Amino acid sequence: MILVTGGLGFIGSHTVVALLEQGYEVVIIDNLSNSSLAVLDGITKITGVKPHFEQLDLRNKPAVHYFFEKHKNIEGVIHFAASKAVGESVKNPLLYYENNIGTLVYLLQEMTRHGLSNLIFSSSCTVYGQAATLPITEEAPIQKALSPYGNTKQISEAILKDTVNAYPAFKAIALRYFNPIGAHPSALIGELPRGTPQNLIPYITQTAIGKREELAVFGSDYDTSDGTAVRDYIHVIDLAEAHIVALARLLAAKNKSNLEFFNIGTGTGSSVLEVIHAFERVNKLKVNYKIAPKRPGDVTAAYADTTLANNELGWQSRLSLEDALRDAWHWEQKLAE
Questions:
Q1: What does the DSSP assignment read for 267-327?
Q2: What is residue 169's DSSP assignment?
């Protein structure tokens, strides 16, 4: 059985679908703070399998302990459960430190107590800060984090390093995501932000469908081709597949060290304006947007060198930016029905 924490969230739900399609038995933990039980129905409709689900907050240490006492057949853990918005982390850093670091510690305590190995950790390209060289390789220096969110990912990676040193049987892979976007092609699951979206694509889709009056483009004087920030946008389906191959690597003991790091992106950077115009072109509509001040914590540009993931994991992104923007729009339309 594979435990997926945060398994009803955006990336978690798509990874659960991929796991079930590969024949894994899955148990999901989610506290529903940024997700919905309806996602469980979507997963079930797509796969024909209803995964095990427990509503549980990983900040509740006794509840985490009880869960692992009850579930003795866990072979691997994919840990998504975390708060994830850069801007929100600047405004509410203590929530991020509690939710992202405390929960990882409780999870690792139970895994090591029960002799469990094989952890896939949901990390982030924010650990690199503003990298000096692009594209970013796994060897890039870890710069000072520009946000509490980024700092929680850096601290979490340090915790994992200390854990594998202290417990030689423990194995982990940290996947450093770039910018996940899109939705399942069925439009049965997708990104479900609570309140005002913190990420670009749901803000675009909500503006396009009329939920929002206009889209704010944060900053127009970055040192980029058009002055807007550049990111590496990867389809969530491709990202989910990276978790499957990383898990298989651990389960087959193919890992080359007890803690490995892989960049998961497309290798291509796209500016905010390029993404907006691509969305308009693919979906044949216009998006009302305005230029707004820069946000604290945002870097100028970040896109991945994925050579290591390509060569070691045998993984590479298959779907295009246009595919992701089309799927994201279909998902937004489905929500409006």
A1: S--EEHHHHHHHHHHHHT----EEEEPPPTT--SEE-B--HHIIIII-----S-HHHHHHH
A2: T
Nearest to 212 by CA among 222, 200, 230: 200
Report d(CA 296, CA 187) in Å as an integer.
33
- Residue 222 bears catalytic tag: no
Q: Which of 24, 96, 106, 149 is catalytic?
A: 149
- H or E segment to which residue 105 belongs: helix 103-113
Tens digit of pLDDT for each residue in 82-129?
Answer: 998 877 888 999 999 999 999 999 999 999 999 999 999 999 998 888
pTM for this entry: 0.95
Residues across the chain: 337
Please measure the distance between the N-terminal and C-terminal CA atoms of the chain and give it in whole angstroms.
35
Rounded to the nearest 10 degrees, how much is the dihedral formed by the CA atoms of 324, 327, 333, 337?
Answer: -140
